[in-house]
């Protein structure tokens, strides 16, 4: 297991000043391997403005010559160790607890960030309202919070591309099996998409987040509905 440092509170990009965050839901975004907090923060203008977006920087520096930062090591024989993913999720939860008292906190992660987002749901099932997992995966192994997560079944959106060759197939297969048993899963596989985020995927994410705002308000009224062709439920073919 690797040593995962605490998140740097000075390396966070917020979409709103402190005085403008009161009584608003917070969406914490987690970048992928080799990127930084500015990467996904660029998506903020395309997401529902009701959310306060907080883009955090991962705590590790990948080996040279990789740029940016990482949440956990993927190099070597123990790359993608589930214990490291859990340690990264625990550091994320520490930062969230210290940085916001928002009633609704959701997670949106890409690749490594998506894996950490799901792991944070597992470590602390009551802490987060939902998660968006873009081109990521569910880490193998069991955690103490898995039973509580399966009971609570928070909403999770999982999007990935048919031409994504970055995430190993065994992890994709595991995620296909694991997510529907623990979450209220929706998502889509995007034809031709590699390891990235497409316009149609961003449209689906925006619709998913709109429904989470309705959940927080205690009503489905006003939520933007994604057409059935653009969001497939987990048991159907597109996620498999």
CATH homology-level superfamily = Alpha/Beta hydrolase fold, catalytic domain
CATH architecture: 3-Layer(aba) Sandwich
Number of domain modules: 1
Number of strands: 8
Beta fraction of the residues? 15-25%
Main sheet strand line-up: 1-3-2-4-5-6-7-8
Number of helices: 6
Which spans have pLDDT < 50 for at least 5 consecutive residues? 219-240
Mean pLDDT metric: 90
Distance between the termini: 31 Å
Percentage of residues assigned to helices: 25-40%
- Overall structural class, as computed from helix and strand content, comes to alpha/beta
Please identify the top-level CATH class: Alpha Beta
Work out the radius of gyration.
16 Å
The outline comes out as: globular
| CATH structural fold name | Rossmann fold
Biggest sheet, open or closed, and with what strands and sense? 8 strands, mixed
Q: Would you list the SSEs in sequence order as H and E?
A: EEHEHEHEHEHEHE
Region (Disordered): 216-240
Protein name: Esterase
Biased composition (Basic and acidic residues): 227-240
Pfam families: Abhydrolase_2
Descriptive terms for the model:
240 residues, alpha/beta, Rossmann fold, 8 strands, 17% strand, globular, disordered C terminus
SSE layout and pairing:
Elements: E1 12-14, E2 26-30, H1 37-41, E3 52-56, H2 82-99, E4 105-110, H3 112-123, E5 130-134, H4 146-152, E6 155-161, H5 169-182, E7 184-190, H6 199-217, E8 232-233
Parallel strand pairs: 2-3, 2-4, 4-5, 5-6, 6-7
Antiparallel strand pairs: 1-3, 7-8
Helix pairs in contact: 2-3
